[in-house]
Amino acid sequence: MIPTLETERLILREPRDEDASAYAAFYADAQASAFYGGPLLAHEAWGMLARDIGHWSLRGYGMWVVERRDTGDVIGGCGLMWPTGWPRSELTWWILPDARRQGFAKEASLAAIAFGYDTLGWDLVQTHMKDDNAAARALALSLGGEAITREAFPDGVSRDIYALPRP
Questions:
Q1: Does domain 5-125 match CATH 3.40.630.30?
Q2: Residue 4: beta bridge partners?
């Protein structure tokens, strides 16, 4: 069972098939999805939704869909992932362009980080990003993230790893 997390403005809930349109909108936007493997066609974006649902079954944690409490609109995704073959787990997020720069990614990330420490019992919640992803780096730093190492990933890209403190 995927737990639901609530913050002041957001509900982080299990991904559902009806969220496919939000995934398709995000992944169709070349600029928004550039650091997430996009742009993707709608059926490919559905595959990302299926991956996010499956991660919960395989690992016991994963991505939540981020929904606004006031409107019920799906505005993105946020969660903890660790794909097979990758050297580390990570906090990750995506926000639809219309919902950006309103603090939603930070608010959702704080809830996910707390889940990692308090529910999963992790000693370290961390994130990483490609060097040219300035927005992700800024969010990691705003969360109190501290660069702890640099590591090569299976996709051939080296990334800085940021330790994220307990909220």
A1: yes
A2: none
